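thought: fold this chain, then report.
action: predict
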Amino acid sequence: MGQTEKPWPKWRNDLHRIIFGTDTFEGRLFDIILIFFISASVLVVFLDSIGYIHKQYGRWLYGLEWFFTIVFTIEYIFRILSLRKPWQYVFSFYGLIDFLAVMPTYISLIFTGGQYLIAIRALRLLRIFRVFKLGRFLWASRYLMVAIRNSRHKIVVFLWFVIIIVVVMGSVMYLVEGPENGFTNIPDSIYWAIVTLTTVGYGDISPQTPLGKAIASVIMIIGYGVIAVPTGIFTAELARMHSSSDKTCNHCQNAQNDPDAKYCKKCGQPLQDP
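observation:
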């Protein structure tokens, strides 16, 4: 006879329902409290990195950090105890994030400054999508990713064109301005061309000669057009996808339907052909 599985203790079932469930009041309350603790712990790290705050309240912030670390460590252990197959959680995305969220404070006991790595706890705020049932809106991000993937060839060609412009213009500015005006080498001149073309304008390097200023003006004008090109490519791809495979339900406004669908997968109403 095969070995029968041991009965699962009731307290573990209750623990699993509270920690991993979002359909119960206890589960939602647990996740909301957890998100509050995560946000507070990240805020403590940010405040501790400010010099005058660290000088005045460093001991309090250090104590709070250890408090949050102990809380998250206990939570991590409870998550493992509530699962029949804990290794699936340990090596999952959220499991690895939860593990990395508690380790930096312990590492800081050995390596100075390691506690600032706990800003990775901000990634745990991704749980808000599960807590408030926002996952159903993630289909829109997949729609955008498809548009980016379909327009990648045009974007790559455009980026190569931009690279050629900044290399040529940077080299020209190196010859026109020279080291005496801050253009000490071609890489620095290319850096200036990128900053100017993108209309950032840090001002750490600037042309001094009339010809250099004229070239800079041309690059700035080109920059305004350059910024609009990738946006236009992406927008055109979105419009093409929408016109060719629009399966939005007129009844419930659900757009997450297959291109060949005849009925809405959410409400079951007939779909009109685009």
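thought: worth noting. The mean pLDDT is 80.
final: tokens above.
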